[in-house]
Design a protein that fits this description.
Blueprint lengths: L11 H9 L4 H8 L4 E2 H7 L5 H13 L3 E6 L5 E6 L1 H4 L2 H17 L16 H9 L5
Antiparallel strand pairs: 1-3, 2-3
Length: 137
């Protein structure tokens, strides 16, 4: 976390939630579960996000050490974003959030139907592949 965004945390959970908080960060991070992605691909997958907000969110995730950016020396410029080793540790947390969210939605579903986990939000197969992939920067 940048010094600007750091706060005096009273618990580690508060610090962890600060890193992934916001409307767009989970959508951005979910897209990176499948592997490195270019800026335009991330923007396309986060429908409704502005370029300014996407750039800001990517910079914050990069400053926090969750993702890294690779710039290729080509014309037009090519930039890819991917998880760092620290960022890969979030996959277990994402799975737990998806599982709990499904339970929460089921409990609060007025018609009582079970809400299944949604693979579009989190894919255990992708997360497993991410954990066993080659180390990244």
């Amino acid at each position: 976390m940048t010094k600007k965004r750091q706060a005096d945390y009273t618990c580690a959970m508060e610090a962890a939630l600060t890193v992934i908080e916001g409307k767009w960060k989970l959508k951005i991070l979910n897209q990176l579960l499948a592997g490195p992605a270019r800026y335009t691909d991330i923007k396309r997958g986060a429908k409704g996000i502005t370029e300014k907000v996407l750039t800001q969110q990517l910079r914050e995730l990069e400053e926090d050490g969750i993702i890294f950016r690779t710039v290729y020396p080509v014309v037009p410029p090519k930039v890819e974003y991917a998880y760092t080793e620290l960022g890969k540790e979030l996959t277990g947390i994402f799975y737990a959030l998806e599982k709990w969210g499904s339970h929460f939605m089921t409990v609060n579903n007025p018609d009582g139907t079970v809400v299944e986990m949604d693979a579009s939000c989190f894919s255990a197969d992708i997360a497993e592949a991410l954990k066993t992939s080659q180390p990244v920067q």
